[in-house]
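Render this sequence as a predicted structure.
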Amino acid sequence: MTSHLLRVSDQQTAALLGQYDAALASKRRRTLALAVAVSACAILAAWVGEVDLRKFVDGLPRFWSYLYDILPKLRFASFGADLAEWYWNWDGWLGLLAETLLVAYVGTFLGATFGFVLCFFASANLLKNTIVRSLVRRILEFCRTVPDIVFALLFVYALGLGPVPGVLAIAIHTVGALGKQFAEVIENIDMNPVDGVRATGATWVEQIRFAVVPQVLSNLVSYTLLRFEINVRGASVMGFVGAGGIGKELLSSIRQFYYSDVSAILLMIIATVFVIDLLTERLRHRLLGIEGHK
């Protein structure tokens, strides 16, 4: 059996190597230019924002001093009594923490539901009407651009104190955030199943139901769970403006210099978020089919 190999002359090899070196050098120059531009923008932003490293270094010891002040004095000889004194109001804080979780859950549920509905109207590959698509995208931009705590302030002013303003604030911000993420996932789907369902005479809603949703459902749920983790942290701050949850108690303890209460509440929040992160991470991995592949 004979084989025919194409032999490249030395001149052609040198020319090809020269073109490769030139392309590689050009790519390196572009990368270097981009790095210089990003660094220059960072330095300019730090200068305009009056970032003072000396002030940071001088204030760092006070930061550690504050952490030392809020830590409880737990002694081995009286550990049980010291722990009981530290968490003297654990049942009340636990109730407020549960309220915080409910605010985050309901807000995430409402936001994800409306974001799911709106994302199909913001996807360029599903909706060709540029006017409607642009309008929906502007709505999503508004919802996620305004900070959720600003929405909470507005709703507290309109509806009064309580968890409802926190739920509405988180829901609106979640609509904007998840609506954009959902739309980007949908814009990356394989359109062949959509074309196949359309060829059967299916309506636009039926195309979404049978050709789009099955492709993106696991990713949408994954993003929703991740957003729930973020909203738990956000709901903890909502109480600062009277929107329910444990944030109000935390702010009150900070203002009154109840150092041990501050550390106790912070530790409960951190532990709760830690547990939620672990549970949602495992659930996301199961949905994405990567359980046990770490």
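Summary. Residues 92-288 form a domain with the MetI-like fold fold (CATH 1.10.3720.10). The chain has eleven helices and no strands.
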